[in-house]
Amino acid sequence: DTAVSQTPKYLVTQMGNDKSIKCEQNLGHDTMYWYKQDSKKFLKIMFSYNNKELIINETVPNRFSPKSPDKAHLNLHINSLELGDSAVYFCASSPGQGTSPLHFGNGTRLTVT
Amino acid sequence: AQSVTQLGSHVSVSEGALVLLRCNYSSSVPPYLFWYVQYPNQGLQLLLKYTTGATLVKGINGFEAEFKKSETSFHLTKPSAHMSDAAEYFCAVSEGTGGFKTIFGAGTRLFVKA
Q1: Considering only alpha carbons, which residue of chain A is nearest residue B49?
Q2: Could you give the CA distance from residue A19 to residue A4 in angstroms, rounded to a whole number?
Q3: Is residue B41 less than 8 Å (CB to CB) from chain A?
Q4: Which residues contact residue A59 at a Cβ distance below 8 angstroms, ignoring those fewer than 6 apart?
Q5: Cα dihedral value B30, B70, A44, B81, nearest 10
Q6: What pLDDT band is residue B99 in, cutting at 50, 70 and 90?
Q7: Which in A33, A52, B4, B47 has the greatest CB count within 10 A?
C-alpha cells in the first residue's frame, strides 16, 4: 500500500557508470518530482513532471534525464556518474501542477566510488 | 526570489517540554508555507501547510504553526514534546499557483531527551 515507492533503496556504483532509479505512485496524482538531498540534508528540486510533461528543469547536468512513461511513473537515468552525484534522491508526488509535494518516497541512497 | 531560513540546525528539548522550531521566509508575493518532517531513512511527510485564511494552522501529531506576515515567520510549535518527535524538520515556501517550485530550508534536527 506504499503511496510513493522507489527502487532501489541503495545503489553503489563506480564513476563513469550509467544507472537508473525508478519511482511509482499509486495515488492518482498528476505531478511528480525528483529531489536531491546532499550530505548536509539540503534538499533541492531537480525535475517536476505534470501528467507526463516536464514543467520544471532546474540547472542540473544533462547527464540526468527523467523519463515519465505515464503519470504514475517517473524514472531518473544518470549517465557517466561522478563522485559529486553521491546523495539521496527522493521521488515525490502531488495532486496537480499548482500544489507542492505531498508524498515522498523513502529515498534512494546513491554512492559513487 | 523566495528563500527560507531555519534558525538553528539542532534543537534539543526534554520530553514534555515545549517544542519551538523557527522559520523565516522571503517572498515577493503572498507565500504558501509548509512544514515537513523526515524520520531517519525515510522520505519527508507533510506536517502542515498555510495557503490563505486563518494564520494559525494545525497539523498532524499535535504540531501547529502561525503565519506572521509582519515578521515574515512561520514558526512550528508543539506544547509537549514526545520521544517520537525526534526527527529532522524542514520549512518550505512556494510562490503563486500553477507550476511553482517549493524551496526548502536547510532543516532543523530535533532531539528529545528523556
Answers
A1: A100
A2: 20
A3: yes
A4: none
A5: -120
A6: very low
A7: A33
Which whole-number Å values give the CA distances from A90 to B1, B28, B83, in the listed order?
24, 28, 26
pLDDT of B82: 97
Surface-to-core class of residue B105, CB atoms within 10 Å of its CB (0-12 exposed, 13-18 middle, 19+ buried): buried
Convert the pLDDT of each residue in A52-79 to its tens digit: 788 777 788 999 999 999 989 999 999 9
Q: Which residue of B10, B35, B44 to mutate against A (max A Cβ within 10 Å)?
A: B44
Q: Which of A89, A111, A88, A107 lies closest to A15 in space, CA to CA?
A: A111
Is there a contact between B101 and A56 if contact means CB atoms under 8 Å apart?
A: yes
